[in-house]
Amino acid sequence: MIRNRTRVLTTLLAAGLVVACGVAWYVTRTPASPFDGAPAPQTPPAAAIQRGEYIARLSDCVACHSTPDGAPFAGGLEMATPLGSIFSTNITPDVKTGIGSYSLADFDRALRHGVARDGHRLYPAMPYPSYARFSDDDVQALYAYFVHGVQPVEQANRPTGIASPLNQRWPLALWNAVFTDGRSYQPKADGDALWNRGAYIVQGPGHCGSCHTPRGLAMNEKALDESSPQYLAGALLDGWYAPSLRGDVNTGLGRWSEQDIVQFLRSGRNAHAVVFGSMADAFNNSTQFMSDEDLRAVARYLKSLPGNPARDGAAWQYTAAAGTPPHPDAQTFMTRCAACHGPDGRGQGQWIPPLAGSAASMAHENASSINVTLNGSARVVADGIPDAYRMPPFRNQLSDQEVADVLSYVRTTWGNRGGAVKPEEVKALRERTNPASSNVIILQMR
Amino acid sequence: MELHINGKSYEVHAEPDTPLLWVIRDELGLTGTKYGCGLAQCGACSVLIDGVVARACVLPVAGVVGRQITTIEGVEADPVGRRVVDAWVRHQVPQCGYCQSGQVMAATALLRETPHPSDEQISAAMVNLCRCGTYNAIRAAIHEVAGQAGKSSTALNEAAGAEDTGRAQA
Amino acid sequence: MNHTPDAPALEADEEGFPTGDPANISRRRFLTSSAGVAAGAFVLGVGLPVGEARAARAAAAPMPAGTRVPAFLEIRPDNSIRFQSPFVEGGQGIFTAMAQIVGEELDADPSTFIVENAPAGNDYKVLSIGMRITGGSMSVRLSYPTMRRLGALARQMLLEAGARQLRVPVSELTTEPGRVVHAASKRSVTYGQLAGVAMDLPVPAPDSVKLKDPAQFRWIGKPVQRLDVHDKSTGKAVYAIDCRVDGMLHAAVQHAPRLGQTVGGIRNEAQVKAMKGVHSVHRLPGAVAVVAERWWDARRAAEALQVDWKAPAADSTARVMPADFSTKALAAQLERMPGPGENAENVGNTEAALKAAHKQVSATYHSQFVHHAQIEPPSALARFNADGTLEVWLPNQAPELFQGDIAKRTGLAPEKIIIHSPLLGGFFGRHFLYDGGTVYPQAIALAKAVGRPVKVIWSREEEFLRDPVRPMAVVRFRAGLDANGFPVALEAESVTEGPTEGIANKRGDKMDPTALEGIAGKAYAIPNHRIAQVYAKQHATLAYWRSVGNSMNDFIYESFLDELADAGGKDPFELRLHLLQGNARLTNLLRAVGELSGGWKRGPYIAADGTRRARGVAMASPFGTEVAAIAEVSIEQGQVRVHEIWEAIDPGSIVNPAIIEAQVNGAVALGLSQVLLEEAVYEKGMPLARNYDMYPILPLARMPRVHVRIIESGAKMGGIGEPPLPPVPPAVANAVAHLTGQRVRSMPLSRHVFKS
Ligand code: FES
Ligand code: FES
C-alpha cells in the first residue's frame, strides 16, 4: 500500500527557504520533556496499558505503522513522495529496531515534538503537530501500551528513498518552530466538559486537521484549533478532498445532527454518507473504536464550529432531474450508478450513500468525486463485519471522457453545485492513483 | 417485511440490509433471478422495481418494501415483457441462458420506457453482460419488438421468419 | 411466512425453513425442469434409465457405449421422447443437436424431445476416443455415427414392436415422424403406443441397422429451433446454483489468498459463529467455510473471518502460488528463458535457411492470463443418502471423471456416487477437473461434517481468486524471406507451460499439444520451419479456455504472418493465398470470406460515417474445422472499435446452421473480449481483479456486426463451439496495425492508446 504524501515535498522545500535564517544550535537541540529525568517507570497496571491501547486507537497509530501482511506496529508502510518513498517506522518495543530503548521522555519527544531518540527530526507525515496536544497522562498511557502491550518485532526500518541532500532533516526543526505550537491541550472555560473532551480528541489524538484543515504554502495546517475559521474547513490531500467538518450546510456538517455524526463515526455510515477514501481507513482502524462518550464529545465539538455561508452558498435543495433521460451523460449514470445510488441520486438509506446533496457533489473541489469513481473505495469493516455493498472501481471500464461526463452530470443535477469535471482532471488523477483493493483488510493491533 | 412480487404479497424475514436477490432466491425460491457478481456489474439479477430496471444484488430489501417488484417469473404478465420473451424465442437469443433473465428484464424496462429505441439507445441501455456473446441476437430481438409495437402477432411471426432466412449459406 | 391464496405453495420442512416448493427439487422434478419441462408435466414411461443403467451394469456382458437404447431413450404415451444426453448443455446447443441427430434416424421430430444430461455410466462414453467429455468441440464430431446409430436402433425396435402389434412382417413397415406405418393397410401406431413393448425388446445388433442417406435428412442440416430457449428466456432453466433439496444448508468460503496456503488460526471464530444465521465454521484445505441457513448470511460471515494463513509446507507436491508472484515478473522471466526448447515440428533446415535468407524478420509476442468469467459462479450441492449413496449436483463437463475423482476423495465406490449435471451457465473450459479450482470437494466435506445436504456457492470474488487461467506464453519468432519477399524459413520458440502440463503439474512424457496448437500445425507452405516449446512453469493454476492453445497462438502466429507480409511488401490476403497454393479447401475458404466481405480490401479508407477504417484477415485450423475471418476497425478516442466481422467456417458437414451461426457470434464476442479488454493481472501472488469491475468483458455496445458463411466441404466433420474464435483476435490486431502503423504484440489492445 502506497500513500501519496506530496505535502512532504513542499514541506521540505519550504523548510529549505526558512533555512536561510537558520540557527545551527536550534535545529539540533533536543526539546525538553516534562518526563526528563523521570525514573524508568515500572510495569504499569493492566488498566493503564488498556487505556494506552485505547489512545492508540484514537490516534490511529496502526494505520501508518503497520502493513496488511506485516506484524502490528512493525512499520514499513510506503508513502510515496515526488522525491522518493518514505517508510513508516517500527514502533514495537524491540530494542534493536523498534522503540525498546526509548525512555518515556524519548517517547514523548517523538510523539509531541517530532524528534527521534537519536535527535533526527521526523517528517511531518507523523502528525506530531496534532499529537502535541496530548496530555501528559495520555503520553504516559500510550508509552505504557507500546512498551508493555505490543509484541516486540525485529524488523529494521527501511531507509527513505529520498536522495541526499534533500534527505537532510534538520530544516524541519525550523518548520516546527514556525508552524507548531508544541503545547498540550488547555481546556477552554467557556466550553463544558463534553465540548472540551471533543476539542481534545479532534485536535489531538484524532488529528482530524491533518486531512480536513487547509494547508499553507509550507504545507502547514493553517489552523490548529477553533480560533480560526480555517480550522477543519476542508482540504485537498493525496487525491482526496476531505470536506469541511464545520457547520457548512452544503459542504460540511451543517445538515448533520450530533447523532448523525456519532453514527457515522461508529458504524461508518448514516443517511447522509458512507465513509470512503482515506476516511475509510480512519474509520476501520480508529473512529469505530471510540467510546460512546468520546463520540458524543467529538460530535458536540464539531457542531460548535460555525460554517461559512459566504463560501458555502445557499442551502442545497433537492431538485428532480429534468426529463428522462435529461441528457446523454445521464445514460452512463443510469447504467453504472443508478443501480446503487438510485435513479434519483438519493441513495438507499444508510446502506448506499446519496449523491444528491452530498458534500463531494457540492464541493467545488472534485478530487473525491473523480477518485472514488476511478478507484472505488476500500472495504468498510464495522465491528469486524465487512460492508454488504462496496463501491467498485470504474477505472478499467470508463474512459476519462466518460468519467468526466458522468461526474459532470452528478455534480450539476438534483440541486448539486459542485460543477463540471474535465477529462484532463480525470486523466491526471488516474495516473497517480491506484484502485482500492476489494480485499477485506483488517489491521491487527496485537 | 411485506414484499409485493409479481402481483403477490410475501411476508419475509430478513435483515434489512439483505440484498433483495437473496431474499427472492433463497427465501422465496424464485431462482429465475440470477447471481453473477453481487456488485451491480453484470445485470444477471435484474428485476423491475415499479417498472424500472434495478439490480437486485444491490437493493437492500428494506428499501423495496411497499414497491411493486417484477421478477423474470412474472415478466410474461407484462404486455411488453410478453412481447420481449416472444422475440427472444423467435430470435433464439439464449445460449447458456444464464444471463438471459436479466437481459429480458433490461430489455423490457427499456422498451417500456422507450418503445422505439435507436441502436445507440440500445447500446447505452443494454449493459448487462453476456459471456456467450448473444448481443447481436439481443439487439435484433429488441429492434423487432420496437419495430412491431402495435402490430398483430401474426405479422410478428412473419417478420421473424423473414429475418431467419437471411442467413448466409455456402 | 404468509402468502396470498394464489401464491406458490411454500412449505416449511422440519427445520421450519421454507423449501420454496417451486424451486425444490426432488430428483425427478430437478431433471424435468432442467430439461425445460414445466414441473408436473412428467408422465411415467418405462422407468428411469438411471436404475436400468445400473442394473444392466451389474448384469451380463456390457454393451458397447451408445447402443443400449433404454439407457438413452424413454418414449412416453404422449409421444414425447425423453433423451439422456451424453453431453452437457452449456449454451452450445448440444441438447438440440442430439435431438436432431437421434431424431433423424429414429424418425421423430426433435421438437418432441425432452433432453437431460445423462448420469455417469459407461453407456454414455460415446466419443470415438472411448470416453465422455463435453469439450474440445468434440461432442458431435466424435459421436455422430454412434448417435445416429442409436436412433436407428431405437427405430428398429419400434418397427419390431409395430410388427407384433399390427401382426405384419417388419419388412412391410415404414415410419413417419413419431409413428410406425403399414402402408398396405393404411394403418399406423404412434411410437408412444409402442414404446412399452419396444423398449423391452432386445436391442438389435449394432451393425444390423442401416443409416439414412444424408440426402434424405429431414432435420440434420436444418436450422431447427433450440429446445431450451423459452425456459431460458423466462427464468425456468435450472442451473447448479439453483438446485435445492430438503433440509439443505448453504455455505460460503473464504479462500486462502494464495493456492497452497493452509489455515493457521482464526482470530474471531467465536464472533463469526455468533453471527446471525450461522450454523458452523469449518476448516477446509486452503479455505475456511461458513455454513448457514441462508447463503447471504454465510457469505457475510465468511468475509468477516480473520484467518491467519500459513505458508505451504516446503515439501508440498501440490501447485503453490509464491507470495512474490506477479504476471509482470513472469513475463520478464519467460522472455529471458533461452531456447532452443523441444521441437514439435522441424522441417527442412531452418537455421541454414534463415542464414541464407534475403531478409530476416524477428519479433517477440506475448499472451496473457485470461479468466473464463462465465456468468454463473461455481457451486455444488452434496447430499449423503441413507442408502449409502452420495448425490452431487455440480457443473461439470465430464460426469465420469468427476465421479472417479469423488470416489478417490471419499473412498466410496463409484456406483455409490450419483452425479447430477445441471445446465451450465457458461463454461468455456471452466468445468473440467482442476485441482484447487472446483467447489464440490468443499460441498462433500461440509455435507459430511454437518450431516445435512450442503450447497456451496463461490462468490464472484472467490471464483476469480481460484479460477484457473489460460497460460501465458512468450513466443520468439525468427523468419527469413526470399528475394521475392516470400517466407522461406520460420522459427517459433514458445516459452510456456501448456494447460495440460499445468493441470498435471508436471511435464508429461510427450509434449503437450495444447501448448503449441495454432503455432504448430499450420497449413502454410513455408519450406523450412522449426516450432518448439521451452517449458516454463507458471505457478498459477492453468486451464483450458475456449479454443485452448489456438485462442492465443493464432493471435501470435497470424499477427506475425502479417508482419512478414509487410516486410516482404506483400498484401497479407494475397500472401496467405500464395502460401496455401494447392490447398483447395483453405483457398476456397479464404476466398469465401473475402467474397463475404464484399471483396478483400485492406484500406485504410474513409467509411460512410466519416471514420477512417482498415481491415485485417486471419485464418485458423482449430478442432478439425477451418476458419477465416476479416475484421474492420477504426480508432475512436484512442481505442479500437470493431465494426464488422466476416467469418467463413468449414466444419466439413453440419447439423444445425442456426446454432453454428450463434456459436460464431459467441466466439467472435469472446475473441474480441480477449483481444480488446482482458488480462488477469497478478501481483503478490493474487489476482488484482476479483470481479467484473476490474476485469471488464465485452459489453453489447462493443459488439460488431457479424456475418457468417458456412461451408460444407464434405471433409471430416469438425468442431463448432471453439473454432470460430481463434482468427478473430489476429484479424483485429492486423487491421489495427495497418490502420495505425502500431504493431501490438500482446493482448489486450486496451493497454494502448492509438492514433488514427
Ligand atoms: S449479480 Fe447483480 S449485477 Fe451482477
Ligand atoms: S447466454 Fe450465456 S451468458 Fe448470456
The biggest sheet of chain B, with number of strands, parallel, antiparallel or mixed sense and barrel status, is: 5 strands, mixed
- Helix tally of chain C? 21
Rg of chain B is: 17 Å
Bulk shape of chain C:
globular
CATH topology of the largest domain in chain C: Aldehyde Oxidoreductase, domain 4
In quaternary terms, these chains amount to heterotrimer
Here the CATH topology of the largest domain in chain B equals DNA polymerase, domain 1
Helix content of chain B: 25-40%
Q: Please report the total strand number of chain C as a whole number.
A: 27
User: What is the CATH superfamily label of the largest domain in chain B?
Assistant: [2Fe-2S]-binding domain
Cα Rg of chain C: 28 Å
Taking pLDDT < 50 over at least 5 consecutive residues as the criterion, the unreliable ranges of chain B are 150-170
Question: Which molecules are bound in this entry?
Answer: FE2/S2 (inorganic) cluster
Number of domains of chain C: 3
**So, CATH architecture of the largest domain in chain C?**
2-Layer Sandwich
Number of strands of chain B: 5
Helix- and strand-based class of chain B?
Answer: alpha+beta
Describe the structure.
The complex is a heterotrimer of chains A (446), B (170) and C (756). Chain A has 446 residues and is mostly helical. Among the domains of chain A are: 42-152, Cytochrome Bc1 Complex, Chain D, domain 2; 328-438, Orthogonal Bundle (Cytochrome Bc1 Complex, Chain D, domain 2), CATH 1.10.760.10. Helix content of chain A is 38%, strand content 5%. Chain A has 19 helices and seven strands. Chain A has helices at 7-19, 24-28, 46-59, 61-65, 104-113, 128-131, 136-148, 171-179, 193-203, 209-212, 258-267, 278-285, 292-303, 309-312, 329-341, 359-362, 367-375, 400-410, 423-432; strands spanning 2-4, 78-81, 84-87, 235-237, 240-242, 381-382, 385-386. In chain A, the strands form three sheets. Chain A has a three-stranded mixed β-sheet with strand order 1-2-3, with helices on one face. Chain A has a two-stranded antiparallel ribbon with strand order 4-5. Chain A has a two-stranded antiparallel ribbon with strand order 6-7. In chain A, strand 2 and strand 3 (84-87) form a beta hairpin. The longest helix of chain A is centred in the first third of the chain and has 14 residues, at 46-59. The two termini of chain A are 20 Å apart. By secondary structure, chain B is an alpha+beta fold. Chain B has helices at 20-27, 79-90, 100-113, 119-125, 135-147, 153-164, and strands at 2-5, 8-11, 46-49, 52-55, 68-70. A five-stranded mixed β-sheet of chain B has the order 2-1-5-3-4, with helices on one face. Residues 150-170 of chain B have low confidence and may be disordered. Chain C has 756 residues and is of the alpha+beta class. Helix content of chain C is 29%, strand content 21%. In chain C, the strands form seven sheets. Chain C has a seven-stranded mixed β-sheet. In chain C, helix 5 packs across helix 6 (191-198) and helix 17 (548-567) packs parallel to helix 21. The relative contact order of chain C is 0.10. The structure holds FE2/S2 (inorganic) cluster (2 copies). One FE2/S2 (inorganic) cluster is lined by residues 35-38, 40-45, 55, 57 of chain B. Residues 35-38, 40-45, 55, 57 of chain B line the site of one FE2/S2 (inorganic) cluster.
